[in-house]
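Notebook p. 47: complex prediction with iron/sulfur cluster.
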Amino acid sequence: MVSSMMALNTTTSHDINDDSLHEACGVFGVWAPQLDVSRLTFFGLQALQHRGQESAGIAVTDGTNLVCKKGLGLAREVFDDKTIAQLQGVAAIGHVRYSTSGKDPEISFQMAHPLIGSNGNRSFALAHNGTLTNVDDLIKELKRLPRDTNSNQQVSDTQLATDLLAQYYSETQDMPTAIMRLMGIMRGAYSMVVLTNKALYVLRDYSGIRPLCVGRLSEGSGWVVASETCALDLIRAEPLREVEPGELLRIDSKGICTLVASDAQSQPIARQAHCLFEYVYFARPDSVIDGANVYRAREAMGRRLFHEAPVDADIVIGVPDSGIPAAIGYARESGVTYSEGLVKNRYIDRTFIQPTQDLREQGIRIKLNPLHYAVRNRRIIVVDDSIVRGSTSKQLIQMLRDAGAAEVHLRITSPAIIWPCFLGINTDTQEQLIAATHTLEETREYIGADSLAYLSLEGLKSCIYAEHPSYCSACFDGDYPISRPKPLHENAFLPGYMPTWQE
Ligand code: SF4
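Predicted complex, structure tokens below:
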């Protein structure tokens, strides 16, 4: 049985000036019958808020009823004390979302997670971080199966997964079997949690593209899963390990157990391919992914960047937030003074409305302001995480020049992004990527820097120190760890570019 507390929160907004990479979600799950699971989930979502600010949702079960509440906006905008107090139960899942499509509030709300499905008698809630790349196959499979559809709804990949799982659950009357069937057909990136009235299920795609870790609450009071360890830290859960690529876990009153191990024979051929950008940009610096501390990795990227691209300058500054540890690393290795040079307005960190072209061009000034006294008449090394379209870097450099900088040398802690990403990031065509259409010198000229350098792919990988150093680097080298997406955007690749796929 399911009841819904879904409410359309009208505090949504539109992201028009989109020149940065955006992660598409964070997931959280907890099984802890003695604790306030909805409050723990709310805290977990707050720790994961950097992974998505467009909607937040929590589904909770008391063992008999499943209740879901979600809305548009930050977790703290969707949930107040009273709402959380109403969500009592033994287990919960939660989700924060950044949408790469569906900016209309109605559509955004439809796409907010968790999604609810049912086998007719028993309900479940599902939340997902990643992107499924074989939507055509999923639609075909759904059409093969008898089902109810609501043709007015814009169907997301997660909605398709939910509908398929509902069908498999109806057919098998057994959730683990239904999930295994779903894992057999889904392709692409998924770190997923599924909640029934009896158990919490946790599954991760065969390549382990998006992060997902599991932890234990103190004194054996329960189990937690989350996209990042920072969510475990906040609720004082002990991080235990990563959910392995291709693994399916069940957590219930008997404890935690692996239903499908990562080395199961039935798995399709896949190579582990953890997203490199998690370390460069997406993850919080206080998280540990696959044994690698994100802050330490970023600091090492700055050190390596100095060796690959040294330059004479007076100060090194970082672009908040992800550029800061790298700028500190660059400064330590080079001996050039580290300085704060940009102040971030933390209260408009989320997407916001920019109604006119003028305001759109102001984009970066709304988020960042230079420390004039620090940069005036100085030769500055600016360390940033990436360049997508180049317009943000251009504005940033102009802003520093307006503040009196004598020289601006841009150093990027990732290689040039040349290829689109189909695995949960908002870059699905090559034409939007400046490095795909411009040479290094043309890019430098466009953004107005005195010099520009990217970290090499080899250099980036050498900075991470993960336990399983097998990465997705497709946006840098076109070597995709997935089969060709279905459908594939007709303008995904520019003429002459030949990606490689895992067929
Ligand atoms: S293509 Fe790039 S951003 Fe996308 S998953 Fe791979 S490394 Fe991450």
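Notes: The CA atoms of residues 5 and 69 lie 5 Å apart. The two ends are 41 Å apart (CA to CA).
Next step: compare against the earlier run before touching the bench.
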